[in-house]
Fold this sequence. Notes:
By secondary structure, the protein is α/β, with parallel strands linked by helices. Helix content is 38%, strand content 18%. It has helices at 22-29, 65-78, 102-115, 128-138, 145-156, 160-174, 206-235, 252-260, 303-308, 310-318, 333-346, 366-371, 389-399, 417-426, 447-452; strands at 40-45, 50-53, 83-86, 119-122, 141-144, 240-246, 277-282, 288-293, 321-327, 354-359, 378-380, 405-413, 428-435, 438-446.
Amino acid sequence: MEFLSRQVARKPRVGRNQQLDAEELAPSRTQPQSSGKVPPHAQVARNAASAHFHAEDGENHSFTIDESMAELRELTGSAGATVLGDFVQRRQRPEPATLIGSGKLEELKGAVASAAPDLVIFDHDLTPSQQRNLERELQVRVVDRTQLILDIFARHARTREGQLQVELAQLEYLLPRLAGRGVEMSQLGGGIGTRGPGETQLETDRRKIFRRIRHVKDQLENVRRIRGQQRSRRQSAPVAAVALVGYTNAGKSTLFNALTNAGVLESAQMFATLDPTLRSVTLPSKRQVLLSDTVGFIRNLPHTLVSAFRATLEEVQRASLLLHVADVTSPTAAEQEKQVEDVLRELESQDKPRLYVMNKVDLLPQPKRESLIDTGSVIHVSAAKGIGLDHLLEQIDARITEDPLQHVHLRVPQAEGKALATLDAQARVYSRDYHDGCVDLDVQAPESVLRRMKPFIVG
């Protein structure tokens, strides 16, 4: 087993833009890269230091150390911090007390003392004792990957449901870390890892924590119940549900807005979308589908988040078709696809029909774009530029089985204006002839529309 630890970034203080010297960062540049799974690392952020730590387990993973660190930098930026530097360490086994070895810990202490950061972020889960030991040695707040992601979720949650889900995940994460942390856990702080439930939820009295967890779970259960009732009403009508899934920052919200004009927040930051949004989309056949935008996935997505956001992710479980959105420009697209599939398996949705939507083709060089070929299951689009969206809608239309289409001939009296208007709005009309006070129509229409037109069907 091999472990790497990295120190990353910090946000400069007001009125000053400190950076770690090149000599301080030199150790990370001399470490050989691993071809296996990226080790956990630490990152200095927002006047803080951060580190990455990685364990090699013999499996073949696509994320290199640099790619993993780049993702950690993106996460750190989404949390409102600036990365200052990083450290990488290779070890046969992790240090039980501090995760990283004593020598690398001394190097990290020196960099922290020099840069005076507010925070050190480890791209690895830390045990409560490791976190306490590292904070004692470094004399600065230490945050692991899960806590960083929870902080980003807390920043972006807008609805009451999203805030409850984040709070539940934070409480369950913090509960085992209360032991031995009296004074600093009794107050609400500022910065990464401190946004969230607040003072009353972080007191050392475990009974209060458990009571709060039960209360939040009860409220979320009410959300699930109401959402289930709404879904039952929707399912009484033959309207298919289509869910957007994909790695975080793949462009799902941009695609959602391009198809629905919903005005959902579009951001280059990770996890900009937490709260589910549903909108109706009209397909080329005039059928309606409900499109839902969901939270993005990420490698090593904390299980507490999957559990807490189950109410949101139920839209994925109930969907008739999944649109797996991927960033075609990402060098780790294959690994990101694997991570999304892992989460779908956890949601028991791995067997659902899906279309792979390769987004951001407008960012590719022209020769590369021209070489791309759509297939029955892979569509290339640019949500930002509107490229390929018509073809995408046609492919969605071809895969929807709810409210099947039929091709029929109708003879509708001209006095039946309401029926004619319904056909114009909800059916494809291929031909129209007028004679003897009637309109002969050759149409393709959903079954639900033709049931209302039954008196007018010819033959």
